[in-house]
Write a structure and sequence with these properties.
0% strand, enzyme activator activity, transmembrane, 84 residues, endoplasmic reticulum, membrane, mainly alpha, elongated, 2 helices
Length: 84
């Protein structure tokens, strides 16, 4: 069963995820329909970043997953060689 700390951390992660989702949704879906001179545009990054940020995050995720898999495979080979 989850402790109080686990629940607080989980609630925080869900809250941050919802805020990011709402911001990105407004930025990508709603903002193009609002006049470019409207004051709300100053709270959002330029539209080019709507593609660059998720692309960079995805590439970093793939890099870290690949490095982790490589690390685990090399470590398991070392353990197998020592066992022989």
């Amino acid at each position: 069963m989850a402790t109080g700390t686990d629940q607080v951390v989980g609630f925080g992660l869900v809250t941050v995820s919802l805020i990011i989702f709402a911001y990105y949704t407004a930025w990508v879906i709603l903002l193009p329909f609002i006049d470019s001179q409207h004051v709300i545009h100053k709270y959002f990054l330029p539209r080019a970043y709507a593609i660059i940020i998720p692309l960079a995050a995805g590439l970093l995720l793939l890099l870290f997953v690949g490095l982790f898999i490589t690390y685990v495979m090399l470590k398991s080979q070392r353990v197998a060689k020592k066992a022989q």
